[in-house]
Aspartate carbamoyltransferase (Halobaculum halobium), 963 residues
Amino acid sequence: MRHDHLLSAGQLTREDIEAVLDRAADLAADPGAVSDRYADTLLALCFFEPSTRTKMSFDTAIQRLGGDTVDMGTVESSSVKKGESLADTVRVIEGYADGIVLRHPSEGAAKLASQFVDVPVVNAGDGAGQHPSQTLLDLYTIRERAGLDDLTIGIMGDLKYGRTVHSLAAALTNFDARMHFISPESLRLPRGVQFDLHDAGARLREHTDLDEVLGELDVLYVTRIQRERFPDENEYQQIAGEYQIDAETLERARDDLTVMHPLPRVDEIAPDVDATEHAAYFAQAHNGVPVRMALLDGLLGDGDDGGAGGGAAATDGGESR
Amino acid sequence: MRHDHLLSAGQLTREDIEAVLDRAADLAADPGAVSDRYADTLLALCFFEPSTRTKMSFDTAIQRLGGDTVDMGTVESSSVKKGESLADTVRVIEGYADGIVLRHPSEGAAKLASQFVDVPVVNAGDGAGQHPSQTLLDLYTIRERAGLDDLTIGIMGDLKYGRTVHSLAAALTNFDARMHFISPESLRLPRGVQFDLHDAGARLREHTDLDEVLGELDVLYVTRIQRERFPDENEYQQIAGEYQIDAETLERARDDLTVMHPLPRVDEIAPDVDATEHAAYFAQAHNGVPVRMALLDGLLGDGDDGGAGGGAAATDGGESR
Amino acid sequence: MRHDHLLSAGQLTREDIEAVLDRAADLAADPGAVSDRYADTLLALCFFEPSTRTKMSFDTAIQRLGGDTVDMGTVESSSVKKGESLADTVRVIEGYADGIVLRHPSEGAAKLASQFVDVPVVNAGDGAGQHPSQTLLDLYTIRERAGLDDLTIGIMGDLKYGRTVHSLAAALTNFDARMHFISPESLRLPRGVQFDLHDAGARLREHTDLDEVLGELDVLYVTRIQRERFPDENEYQQIAGEYQIDAETLERARDDLTVMHPLPRVDEIAPDVDATEHAAYFAQAHNGVPVRMALLDGLLGDGDDGGAGGGAAATDGGESR
């Protein structure tokens, strides 16, 4: 991977993706391989919105690489609320750290930030925009469980608002996957996203009923239908109920079906699925660590090792770094 | 100590307790003894309720052991508020860390969590339930100052709601201590707790006036009487005032009386006690570090060193650890 | 520097200041020089008020020195809200860490804290009081860009409430600087501060219009005029507007004028200044790292190396450190 920043899944070619996933697999097998290189590396965690798993996962990843973090803390505990611009905040923070992981409520925030600093910026979610490291760990999990070639995947739930879904579908066009989108009418994949997928040559179909395709799927990717999308509680209960799965549902699936979910889940997947061989969602979350190690290694590394993840990020040290 | 998790003080035998205290004493004398072993160890701090000293103390302990932390942050800054279950949260977090320290408002939370993960769970307080590492540091302090054999201890203040008091009393039954419980009528030790102590062979007496026993005590353990227990402010002021001590009170005590308090204190112990030889409450808080080092060493260690604290926790690495 | 604590800029002699700045310059040039010495050092971050840059800067500094932190967290997540006194809080925390960085809303808090603990206390801002490490990084930046000898400096904005300004001016009396204070009538430098500066032999003049002195200045130090100082929004807009600078303003300045700002800024300095050679405010923030490294090295170090920053802080280890 030869990028200065990771801003969107769309910037990654098939070659980029495979390089990161290969590197992640290597690091998962031998986490200590790079420890010495990052002993003096500090990664700034700048989360302008709440997060558990993404933040802890990046925190773990840089520490597993041998580095450490400086944390901006919550917005409430920071000087952001004094009216400072994002551009100013990141320009200050680049003096403290060798890279910046940024989550922000505004779409485009990571891209904006990247234009003001010389250290690598990783987009860890920008509003309704992108969350590329989530996409990479999804791809890693799919590759590990079902393979990325000749894949038939079902993506179910809230397809209208879910940025995770849009990024994953876009990335899968690199691998010629057959995609089935399963949702209530009111939460269908937006027209614009569909057009983009068609343009990229995607093979996609839409369904309102999971059973139409369940038996064909290698992977079923479930997302949460949010209560707040429905003005009426009864309507929410009825519709959400139709897109929940349990162990009984999966008896109609192939034995080797892999069930994924970006988490947190609420009721979409019943607890009785957890103990089945289908369940991959906790392993998926755990895969965030080696995938983010590989990502950071690509962005922060000096590229000297010639490894798949060696990057070319601009990290020339200023006087205070 | 041979446990996978530390969930309650009740699970610890006299032998377990003495092993942890011995190990803590060793580590206090030579904190660097284990540094190399934990260089790659990450401890997850999952505090669903506010805490200063317990959280900082565990944070310090794992760092003094050579390891580091990943912090879940406050509930407000996490995805917990999206409705994720505790079981899901800890199953994700076990992919990031080699052990989990959990504080949670619900009694039984740590036990529940321990049933879902393969890494050691330490209960750092679960509602009205247990706080076993507090009990261990209390025992450590008592042993250091007065010895655990042939002990006469007074426990004063809010004996009804104080989980610290209940755990400590239960643990002291292992050492055949004479226990005097001093409180207002309305905050007496609950009947159930008394029965359990009697069942364990405890020698206990109740008092409403400290002066009845002050002269006999080796240790006086003071706890805070909380304003919110009393509907009437005047009643609170009057009653709380009767259970406060100052330097003058202690003139009626033995010269070698040790005064302890789990902190934070408000008015229960006047500042003029701080400078006396009786005061042990700050040292008691500081003892949390070696005691928690010993605890973590027992739970996270591989037991190869044959040391008293060598544990047998299940820490086989998943792919992302 | 031979101090146990850093409580106010006023405690620093010219010799102290120069020793810290020299040491900071050395550490900026070779950050790895001291890594081994602080491998076992923990610095407690106790921020009772929000902060981004000061907290992250101290966090970075101790990590760049090879040490690490234990963080008290926000007041909301700590037991402080249970009514614990500051004296008790810091006496507990000194058992966890080798030094304490304290920000607190009450003037004199750091001094009070220092009287209760044996580890070094660094004042990172105490209400309307002091913020000495900010003063040191300001001086470092001035020295680097313009030199501290024969300096002509303009200090503009809110001179009435800005503790940054008062400390910097006091420190500059050590270097016989010519000081021009530029502000609206209602935000002039307080009489008491002026008297103290005169007593210290300062050469100072006051102005309401920047253009009266702009052409003479080596350095222009801009501070924020806070909306909340003005009952009337229109009055604020009008007055604040007169004390904002942009690239056009600076055409009337000397080519080598250095513009500084403690940040965060709002509208005081237009973004078109950022790209000019005048702008030093981001570098100024970044200088916080080597300056705080030097400070901490002076306070935490054992002084054995004979270096300029070698301190004499009391850091004898208690049993739990």
Observations:
- The first helix of chain A runs from residue 14 to 29.
- Confidence is low (pLDDT under 50) at residues 303-321 of chain A.
- The two ends of chain A are 25 Å apart (CA to CA).
- The longest strand of chain A covers residues 42-47.
